[in-house]
Design goal:
about 15% strand; globular; alpha+beta; Peroxidase, domain 1; Glutaredoxin
Length: about 190
């Protein structure tokens, strides 16, 4: 299973790199970035779109026609629309989530940005997000974009993942550590 995930990521990476190179050469990276967000939202919100990309019941022509109509309706740039049609023609639409993720990574790298995943027990206020973003930017030397979500099971605190580093200041993990320490004593 891990091997097929690796193959999918590799396939998606090649399409993403090609599209990124086209966008960079034409100066359309910022526009592409916004369209990626819209496409990702559409993919997450539409079970029909996910079915289209994953189901073997749709043939190449049906997939190509559908993504062409979607691209037209969303007003996607010709480069992105053509890439999606090519992926459909080559039966590679199943890699769409990996394609979007890899393309976002390439764009962020080109802009000197990085993304931090933040899981908190309560929704962060705008001020808290700004302070956390500034702190992480100072630490990483890059502009930091926050992906924030709420997980009430943390009880309090937060977990921040920036690149390969993870900081867990949640009450849940502190309680687990305390419980382990008490087991060792008794």
């Amino acid at each position: 299973m891990a091997n097929s995930a690796s193959i999918s990521a590799d396939i998606a990476g090649r399409y993403a790199q090609a599209l990124f190179d086209l966008a960079r050469d034409s100066g359309g990276i910022d526009a592409l970035s916004g369209q990626l967000d819209d496409l990702a939202l559409a993919y997450d919100a539409s079970q029909d779109l996910r079915d289209l990309t994953l189901s073997p019941l749709y043939d190449r022509q049906q997939q190509e026609t559908a993504v062409g109509a979607l691209a037209s309706r969303m007003g996607l740039a010709p480069e992105l629309a053509n890439t999606l049609r090519l992926m459909a023609r080559n039966r590679r639409l199943f890699t769409l989530p990996q394609f979007l993720a890899r393309l976002r990574d390439l764009i962020a790298e080109a802009k000197g940005e990085t993304t931090a995943d933040v899981v908190s027990a309560q929704a962060l206020t705008d001020e808290q997000k700004a302070r956390l973003g500034d702190t992480l930017a100072a630490k990483s030397g890059k502009t930091v974009k926050l992906n924030a979500r709420v997980d009430e099971s943390l009880i309090g605190g937060m977990i921040v993942k920036l690149g390969s580093q993870m900081i867990d200041s949640s009450i849940r993990s502190k309680l687990a550590s305390l419980q382990n320490a008490m087991k060792e004593v008794g």
